[in-house]
From TrEMBL, chains A, B:
Phosphate binds at residue 105. Pfam families: Semialdhyde_dh (PF01118), Semialdhyde_dhC (PF02774). The gene is asd. It comes from Deferribacter autotrophicus. One of its GO terms (molecular function) is NADP binding. This is Aspartate-semialdehyde dehydrogenase. The active site is at residues 134, 247. It catalyses: L-aspartate 4-semialdehyde + phosphate + NADP(+) = 4-phospho-L-aspartate + NADPH + H(+). Substrate binds at residues 161, 240. Pathway: Amino-acid biosynthesis; L-lysine biosynthesis via DAP pathway; (S)-tetrahydrodipicolinate from L-aspartate: step 2/4; Amino-acid biosynthesis; L-threonine biosynthesis; L-threonine from L-aspartate: step 2/5; Amino-acid biosynthesis; L-methionine biosynthesis via de novo pathway; L-homoserine from L-aspartate: step 2/3.
Length: 339, 339
């Protein structure tokens, strides 16, 4: 269901003081989203904080069940618990919720949408639309054109996920550890299970009974739902690396129909939301340091898998706060107001 | 051919002032290798430097074609160019060369040896034995028991390689970048193609025509040779990460015979050179920060690949200066003097 046509919309941001919250504001401003009233919501602890949007200063309000009167679009990014508790109140108040948490993603009644992949699903909502997991979004943007051309059977993916994927505090912790290390001071470890500076941690979200982490199982389950094809299999290893922003992924894709590297390059180049950066002779390939702050997902290292027929390797990097979170949610909102 | 039995051996280290050179000395001392004369060799630029071994100070000598008189074992780690130029002189002088560079690895007449995998090959040398690529060594130590049990058909691996894999200067560059960043100073980029602090670089060694890097093709070619089985296929993505020491690898292994996670754990536990660290409920899994300085390769995240029959995922971390280089070379030397 599209939103009732208006010139401008009342927008609430839940989790306005978090890592994704700030990027919501940046992107709403950049894209000049038609906002009438902007309501910034957060926990009691953050209420009263001042945040600037365009040229106006807004005061963060405490999130309550009564926060959503008159709101058309509520962008949630305050963790699954808050989404579960407050999204129904927003829906009851008449808002469409676009939720960045994992709370509703696998609910049958909730569409899980990446606008470059399954835009049509956005209109099938019952008040809530789920924004997929960041690592999954970045991957499926790249998988979509390959699937349309050659039908994907299996994906093997290893991720290199940045600290800010775990929130603003986690990113700060990496920076603090770098400074403490440089000054010969002891390193504080709070946001992650272990020191992240000069380390990699093969553990994101909790462990499941099958030995995968929940993050890895999100890539498995969400890819099937977003792509609308239960036959696509995804085995993932998700790893935290000492990078501030942007997630990288090494992907092997097995397809029914052969996709040569040249064909893949052509498919990527024609697909929305993708930039091909694949000039090894100039040392040009996607890297998190240079993709941070960019809207598109960057693909490179495209090569035929020499170990299997109809298998392709590539490397994709996306800003997980933008395309992996805030931008994708706002693109969904744009879809809803476009019809 | 084993070395002629002696009580103690004359040992030369070529590249004594490099990252691996220092670890050669550490490990020779730790393992109390039976050394009569120790000769430290390096480029003219480093000649004259003093290096302590056990309680004696040694003066680094300039590497020349006449450097090897009376030497029994020459440990080379000074780059492929120097190995190609000087290893034949060492052989001519009667030494057995154990070469850490890629210069001779794929030569038919040169055995490529990981003592836990193919110790018998060490004795088939004609004066030169090659030490495999660091990332490959760490992987094949873990692959060997799986292959013996279930016959490996295909390996898909993504690496997380530390800065010191590119040498002592590269590791220093990462530390210098951390300090410069902490002090708000500009970062110097010399050792790598791009900034490595807070970044990952999907590019190690040069690019080949097929789109893989030479590092990735080393994993393909060297695995076949070390395992003595040309049918094992390896597709790799090799990535530099901002870690000081120890390489990590996310590995998917497809086998002819099913290997359950429990069976794999049992096989790993019984295999030489491997420690299993796989207690997700305690947040215990191998990480470079904790494997640095260790001799064994650490395996964890062992789980059934839910996307394919007879496929297994695991994570392996090894200190690439030790098992991936100096330790492996010295283990080869120990083999040669053991018979």
């Amino acid at each position: 269901m599209a939103l009732a046509k208006k010139e401008k919309y009342n927008v609430a941001i839940v989790g306005a003081t978090g890592a994704v919250g700030q990027v919501f504001l940046d992107i709403l401003a950049e894209r000049d989203f038609p906002i009438n009233e902007l309501r910034l919501l957060a926990s009691k602890r953050s209420a009263g904080k001042k945040i600037k949007f365009k040229d106006t200063e807004y005061t963060v309000e405490e999130l309550t069940h009564d926060s959503f009167k008159g709101i058309d679009i509520a962008l949630f990014s305050a963790g699954g618990g808050r989404s579960k508790e407050f999204a129904p109140s927003a829906v009851k108040a008449g808002a469409v919720v676009i939720d960045n948490s994992s709370a509703f993603r696998m609910d049958k009644d909730v569409p899980l949408v990446v606008p470059e992949v399954n835009p049509e699903d956005a209109f099938k909502h019952n008040g809530i639309i789920a924004n997929p997991n960041c690592t999954t979004i970045i991957m499926v943007v790249a998988l979509k054109p390959l699937h349309d051309y050659g039908k994907i059977k299996r994906v093997i993916v290893s991720s290199y996920q940045s600290a800010s994927g775990a929130g603003a505090k986690a990113m700060q912790e990496l920076m603090d550890q770098a400074k403490a290390w440089s000054n010969g001071e002891p390193l504080k470890i709070e946001a992650f299970q272990h020191q992240i500076l000069f380390n990699v941690i093969p553990h994101i979200d909790v462990f499941m009974d099958n030995g995968y982490t929940r993050e890895e199982m999100k890539m498995y389950n969400e890819t099937k739902k977003i792509m609308g094809d239960d036959s696509i299999e995804v085995t993932a290893t998700c790893v935290r690396v000492p990078v501030l922003t942007a997630h990288s992924e090494a992907v092997t894709v097995e397809t029914e129909k052969k996709i040569t590297p040249d064909k893949a390059r052509e498919l990527f180049e024609q697909a929305p939301g993708i930039q091909v950066l694949d000039n090894p002779e100039k040392n040009e390939y996607p890297m998190p340091l240079f993709v941070s702050g960019k809207d598109d997902c960057y693909v490179g290292r495209i090569r035929e898998d020499i170990t299997k027929e109809n298998s392709l390797n590539f490397w994709v990097v996306g800003d997980q706060l933008r395309k992996g979170a805030a931008l994708n949610a706002i693109q969904i909102a744009e879809l809803l107001i476009s019809k």
